[in-house]
Each structure stands twice: as C-alpha cells, then as structure tokens.
Amino acid sequence: MRPMTSHPHSLSRRRFLAATAAATVVPPRLAKAGPAFPKDFLWGASTSALQIEGAVQEDGRGPSIWDTFASHLGAIADGSSPRQACDHYHRWAGDIALMRQAGFSAYRFSIAWPRVLPEGVGAVNAKGLDFYDRLVDALLAAGIRPMPCLYHWDLPQALQDRGGWMNRDIAGWFADYAAVVAARLGDRVEDWFTLNEPSVSAIFGHAYGEHAPGLSRGRDGVLAALHHQNLAQGQALRALRAADGRFRLGTVLSLQPVVPVSGGEADRAAAIRWDALWNRVSLDGVMRGRLPDILADDLKAWVKPDDLETIRFPLDRLGLNYYSPLAIQYQPGRLYDAGFGPSANPQVTAMGWPVDPRGLGQVLSELRDLYGNPEVLITENGAAYDDRPDAAGRVVDADRIAYFHGHLQVVAAAVAAGCKVKGYLAWSLLDNWEWQCGFARRFGLVYVDYASQRRTPKASFAWYRALIESGRLAS
Ligand code: GCO
C-alpha cells in the first residue's frame, strides 16, 4: 500500500543546503591536503532493494524469503518488517537528487528478483522491470553510473518452497533471471554484479537461522548454499557474457581477515576453518576454480565433475565489502567448532564490530600478491552509530567520518602500493532496514526519519561530498 506521506522530494534544496552547511565539521578550505585519489576514481554508495525499497506488495512483486522471515515472531530485533523500509520505490527521484548533490559518479543498487519474476522463474513482471528501467535512466541523466547487483539476499519465496539455495537447480534459475534483466537493461547498463556476500547468507541463513530463510542445517546447509551460489554465479556470469561482450562483470564478496582470539592451537585451527568457510570457498572458487582443501571431503556431497570449471570465471572486477576483521575462537558444538570471540580492539561500532582499517589493507595486499592483482571496487564499507538529530535538527556523526577517513587512508595507501582499487562505494546512502536488526541500526550518510520518511544529510554526507569534490583526503 502506498503510504499517505509519499512525496518524491522530501528534502527541499534550501533545507538541504542549510543542513549540510551547518553540518560540515571541517571546512574544506581549512583542511590540509592529504593523499589524492586517481582522477577516474569512482565515488558513490551501495544500497540493496529489500533494505530501502518498501512497496513489497506493489505492482506485482512476489514475496521474498525476508518478507516471510520477518513475519516470524522474534526474528527481527525491533519487530519491524521491510514492508515500507525507506519507501525508495516511490522516493527514488529524491534519492537520486541526493546522490547528485554528493557528487556520486557510481551507484550500486540491487534488483529484487521477486519484483522481476514473482515466482522466481517463468512469467516476467513487466512493472517490476519498469521500476529499474526508470531508475537506470534517471541515474544516467544525473551522470551516475548504474551498477546493479542481481542478488542481495531477497530470494523469491516461491523458490525457497522448492528448496532455495539447497537445490542445485537454482543455478539455472538464477542464470535465466540474469538473462531477463540483461535483456531489458543491458542497452544502458555496462557494470554488473551477480551475488552479494554469499558466505553471509549461507552461514547466517542456513546454519545460524538468524537470516532468511532461517534454517539451522549446520555444515550441510552452509556447504550446499555456498556451492550452489558459486555454481549459480558461474552460470549467470556466462549468461551475462553471452548477452553482451562489452559488459563489465563482477561479484561482491565480504572478505574479512580472520584472527584467532589467542595463539593457542585450538583457536588457530578454528580460525583456519572459519577463513575457509567465510572467505575462501567463494574467493578461490571464482578466482582459481579451487575449493579449500580443508573442506574438500565435506564438499564432496555437493560438487560434481566440471563444477569447478563453471565456477571459475575471469571477472572484470571484484566487488569487495569490508567492515572489520573477525575474531574467531574454538567453540565446540558450533558450526565447524568455531564461533565469534571477543576482539582485542576496544573501539567498536554500534554493531559491536571492531574498527580496524588495517584489515582492509591486509585484504587488498593479499588480492594483489596472491590473486593476480584483480581490479577491485570497494562495494561496501561503513559503520553503524547511534545517530540522533540534535536540537537544531542536525546529525553530527563525527565517529562515522573518522571511520570513513581511516579506511580511505588505507585505500589511498593501497593504490599507491599498486593495488588496482578503482573506486569506493560507501555503505550506505540512507539509513535503512538492517536485516535482523530492523531499524535499530543506522549506516547512512543520510538520516531517515521512518515515520515521516524525511531525509536529512548527516555531517558525513557533507564530508564525503567535499572529499569527492577535491579528490583528496584532508590530513
Ligand atoms: C552486508 C550487506 C548489507 C548490510 C551491511 C551492514 O554486508 O551484510 O551487504 O546489506 O546492511 O553490510 O551490515
């Protein structure tokens, strides 16, 4: 149902200028010059369909596994649902105006599979595709490069009813869906991503039961979901390549260095197992056509001859999501007898994630030294803090600015050291519906008042805009 408050431009230009001018923490002209980024460096943000669009029952969209999961009592911390989210489905024009104000040159969003194919396969919902068609046109008109990601966790419920990521047939379903979207948008979209963070949806959705589809199937659940995502990705990348040889193809992985909580043998071995599961199945699969030896026996049940050839693909770029290193501990009885342990780092975000930009540098140099130095786009990096407007209505999020600044210093150093990082997309443009945390975590450059859907750019927005404009970090 379309909410009463819907208005495409919830932020007037006058209010926007007042808010951002007042919120600028360091006036750019006073800032000392820090490292510069290459002239063609891409700047922008990432979002995902389920987290911002709302309109889950509009224009023929089918239900997704997250709509179902959120309806279960206790599944979402604040009891909320993605039903309205940021109402981006109606406010997209105003949201693109914000991106333009910030000076974005690229924007990664996701396409909701259940909007395009309500049953996951078969009949195409033209109205669903129309939405992304309009979005792409408006982005291009604003000078912003559209970078759609085909899957950000919102599987059509109809496919879950057929086994979802546990069913090997999903590889073909996903490739068919990719071809449908490419046929409609491929005349204007060049940059494509297939999956978002397969290890997170496999582990949290199929073993921990904390993400949709809410399964607790242990090793089998995780390995099946991981392998079938690898396979689906391989087939979809080939379908996209066949659709247009000029497409620039990528996938998005959450690569986090895994650090044992102690030097003890049990913790160290647990960290190696976790690294294999979280990072290597996806990374080594696509980049090397190999799976970690340590999981080889367990994977045998799922991997068929020739699968590895399908999974390996020469990506044009790798999308890298980085938030923090993972502190891992031996925890008997947990998945692979490993679990999240306490981090030695006292500085954490509202998610409880340690702030440690060095981990990003570690991942980037490893990609350069051990994985053939692929072209990388940072597709997510950011932090949740307990933002609140002050008495004057401003949101001064100095901690988020510090987080971005620290991580971008590392990116600049990595570029100088030969890593092929081509751009940075912050997570995220807007505060949004943060999965099992609901609306209780805010990651945006722009504050969203969910009751009124009013958008207020935070201080970090003004800071980011100044950075994009100057192309250099203030020291
Ligand atoms: C992820 C997803 C995003 C999250 C963000 C903050 O990395 O988990 O890609 O959808 O919202 O990372 O948790």
| Large-scale geometry | globular
What would CATH call the architecture? Answer: Alpha-Beta Barrel
Kindly provide the radius of gyration, computed on alpha-carbon positions and rounded to a whole number of angstroms: 21 Å
Strand content: 15-25%
Termini gap? 48 Å
**Bound molecule kinds, no repeats:** D-gluconic acid
Order of strands, widest sheet: 2-3-4-5-6-8-11-12
- Report the structural category: alpha/beta
Q: Give the % helix.
A: 25-40%
CATH hierarchy class name: Alpha Beta
CATH topology, by name, is TIM Barrel
Keywords:
16 helices; 40% helix; disordered N terminus; TIM Barrel; 475 residues; three-stranded mixed beta sheet; eight-stranded parallel beta barrel; binds D-gluconic acid; globular; 15 strands; alpha/beta
Would you spell out the secondary-structure blueprint of this structure?
Layout (H helix, E strand, L loop, with lengths): L12 H11 L9 E4 L5 E5 L2 H4 L12 H6 L17 H15 L3 E5 L2 H4 L9 H16 L3 E7 L5 H4 L9 H16 L5 E6 L1 H9 L11 H26 L4 E7 L3 E3 L4 H24 L7 H4 L7 H5 L5 E5 L4 E5 L7 E3 L17 H13 L5 E5 L17 H19 L4 E7 L18 E4 L4 E4 L1 H12 L1 E3 L1
Parallel strand pairs: 2-3, 2-12, 3-4, 4-5, 5-6, 6-8, 7-9, 8-11, 11-12
Antiparallel strand pairs: 1-15, 9-10, 13-14
Helix pairs in contact: 1-16, 4-6, 8-10, 9-10, 9-11, 10-11, 14-15
Bound molecules: D-gluconic acid (GCO).
Brief digest:
The protein has one domain: TIM Barrel (Alpha-Beta Barrel), CATH 3.20.20.80. 40% of the residues lie in helices and 15% in strands. It has helices at residues 13-23, 49-52, 65-70, 88-102, 113-116, 126-141, 157-160, 170-185, 198-206, 218-243, 265-288, 296-299, 307-311, 358-370, 398-416, 459-470; strands spanning 33-36, 42-46, 106-110, 145-151, 191-196, 248-254, 258-260, 317-321, 326-330, 338-340, 376-380, 421-427, 446-449, 454-457, 472-474.
